[in-house]
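Slides due. Your pick:
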Amino acid sequence: MTDLIGLTFAGCRASFDLEDCDKILRVATDEQPVYSPGIIALLESFGYQAAVLEEDSAEEVYREELQLSAH
């Protein structure tokens, strides 16, 4: 999924910690804000649910953390 996100959304890098039980997907870009609705739609097309985790600070617009779960 991380490779597909990078191919589908130019400039995006995605990663997750496979040992983390919270199933957090991290998506970052260098030049533009992360397009969360598109990434969530892509994940849903593969049977996952995702929601953006809100951060305390709005300063970082180039990184999003999404909580994943399987349908």
In short: The mean pLDDT is 82. The chain has one domain: 2-70. The radius of gyration is 11 Å.
